[in-house]
Amino acid sequence: MGIMTHAKILLVEDSSTQALKLQHILEENSFVVTTAKDGQEGLQKARQEPPDIVITDVMMPVMDGYELCGRIKKDAMLRRIPVILLTTLSNPEDILKGLQCGADNFITKPYEAAHLVSRIEYILANQKLRKGLTSDMAIEIAFAGQQYLLTSDRIQILDLLLASFETAVRKNIELEEANRQLRLAVQTIDKLGEMIPICCHCKKIRNDKGFWQQLESYCLEHSIAEFTHGLCPDCEKELYPELHKQNS
């Protein structure tokens, strides 16, 4: 926490709800947070009091996150400030646009608080290690019928690509877990779709191992159903006739 303690973060987010949520997470982790509602206001605040790091949403009115990042990286006084883009990362062009504007990293939405904080810690730690290093370059590439001029330095490109890979790995893990849950659900449906032996008198069910068990316990083991208990009118009449008369 020593690297991060009291680091100044400029948070640029047009959604007040998202801004408050993110500000709360950051301040809980000892960051000093200043907020702005769009890129134009964010640029003004960055020039007034340069932060240690900028976290900006991508889609915003007046000036979006890509333009804000580009302006910061072209400003001689601000260009060394790391910029993190908040994005859904829905297609590869998002990464290329981030490289094009000189972004240092990105966080995908929705984000986990622990992942967000660790990404900030990584950037601030590496900023100290790489202080004074420069490796400016310009590469023009074509992708999906469009030309992109990438002016990020080699270290920024590496960081952004590593972040892309990390995000892909996390998404793959989440997908594998979702598939596992789906397989379990299908297995449960298959079991409940089979012909189930049930006693015509006591209503117990014979399970897969040949043992007879109460209907309720069988359903709890083979489905996600939950039970509440009550009395049907017939049982109420038989067991509690006086109560039945009152309720009738």
Quickly list its features.
single chain, 248 residues, alpha/beta, Rossmann fold, 2 domains, five-stranded parallel beta sheet, two-stranded antiparallel ribbon, 9 helices, 9 strands
Structure overview:
- By secondary structure, the protein is an alpha/beta fold.
- It has 2 domains: 8-173, Rossmann fold (3-Layer(aba) Sandwich); 197-247, no CATH class.
- The protein is 49% helix and 15% strand.
- It has 9 helices and 9 strands.
- The chain has helices spanning 16-28, 39-48, 65-74, 92-101, 113-129, 154-193, 215-222, 233-239, 241-247, and strands at residues 8-12, 32-36, 53-57, 83-87, 105-108, 139-143, 146-150, 205-206, 212-213.
- Strands 2-1-3-4-5 form a 5-stranded parallel beta sheet, with helices on both faces.
- Helix 2 (39-48) packs parallel to helix 3 (65-74), helix 3 packs parallel to helix 4 (92-101) and helix 8 crosses helix 9 (241-247).
Helix/strand class:
alpha/beta
* CATH fold label of the largest domain: Rossmann fold
* Rounded mean pLDDT score: 80
SS elements, strand count = 9
Termini separation: 67 Å
Please state the CA-atom Rg, rounded to the nearest Å: 29 Å
Brief overview:
Helix content is 49%, strand content 15%.
Note the topology.
Layout: E1 8-12, H1 16-28, E2 32-36, H2 39-48, E3 53-57, H3 65-74, E4 83-87, H4 92-101, E5 105-108, H5 113-129, E6 139-143, E7 146-150, H6 154-193, E8 205-206, E9 212-213, H7 215-222, H8 233-239, H9 241-247
Parallel strand pairs: 1-2, 1-3, 3-4, 4-5
Antiparallel strand pairs: 6-7, 8-9
Helix pairs in contact: 2-3, 3-4, 8-9
